[in-house]
């Protein structure tokens, strides 16, 4: 376990470096229990932004939330469990990434990220492995 904690700290440090140097589109993925949500919560606290783990069923609700946060001057949006979002919602996020930074997470690597128009937006992609006490 002693190697896992420094690894998480290294990812946190790398994400901070990216966010502080450019507009970013960052994706974290890993199984349940890998620490994605904890890492996102730490980022939200550091940057004083909302940690959003809502499962938006409708694209219009997601757009309203993003537009509201932008209007409030927020420069970073953190979305947990985006693997539950449909293609249209992920496409909206991709488009909004022109004007605001995103850190997204999912329990699996999303196939949509292989599409060129998504791949070209990615600043970084991190896979988190489960913490094991064995």
User: Which CATH class?
Assistant: Alpha Beta
On the 0 to 100 scale, the average pLDDT is 86
Quickly give the structural class.
Answer: alpha/beta
List the helices and strands in order: HEHEHEHEHE
CATH topology annotation:
Rossmann fold
Helical residues, percent: 40-55%
Number of helices: 5
Kindly provide the radius of gyration, computed on alpha-carbon positions and rounded to a whole number of angstroms.
Answer: 14 Å
How far is the first residue's CA from the last residue's CA?
Answer: 8 Å
Widest sheet, order of strands: 2-3-4-1-5
Give the biggest sheet: 5 strands, parallel
The low-confidence runs, each spanning 5 or more residues with pLDDT under 50, are none
Strand segment tally: 5
- Beta-strand share of residues: 15-25%
